[in-house]
Specification:
Blueprint lengths: L8 E2 L5 E5 L4 E5 L5 E5 L4 E6 L4 E6 L9 H20 L2 E8 L4 E5 L2 E5 L6 E4 L4 E6 L4 E7 L2 H13 L10 E4 L15
Amino acid sequence: MSRIGKKPILVPGNCKVAVNSATREVAITGPKGDTLKVNYRPEISVAWNEKDRHIVCSTDMAKIDEGNRRAFWGTTRANINNCIKGVTEGYSEKLEVVGVGYSVKVAGKNLDLKLGFANVISLPIPQGVKVDIATEGGIFVTISGADRQRVGEFAAAIRSKRKPEPYNGKGIKYSGETIIRKQGKATGG
């Protein structure tokens, strides 16, 4: 049995859930108006109990050892739970930009990064993702939104443009990330 998959998902009273078994899709709408959809595998069945306000994911226990059924079961439950958390509370990632002359600004629907290269790097901001920039005590970029995957992917895309280097610590890092520093070359003398 899947330890994660067998747990029922509790749905808050301010969320609306629609399960369509024909298209194998679960749609969740939150209090802010965000709607997230999850498609699930044919090996898994999803049931919505409106009276008790919980969602139960299940699979055929006679075929539990076939293929990746246990993994699909747990993944489906985790994805639905992430959507419920996303439409009620939301997700956010905080990045720190360290470097002399480095700057970040929002220009329309793009995020412009000046990271010591000859040209400005322009990244399109995904739909449903909000970017806030704070410049007190350094440059901090906060990426927030309802969809956990979009928030995480966009944060990783920004970080990949200039990963932190171990000698001076310059680059883009997650807030709270520890960069192991190296000493560098010692001069002879």
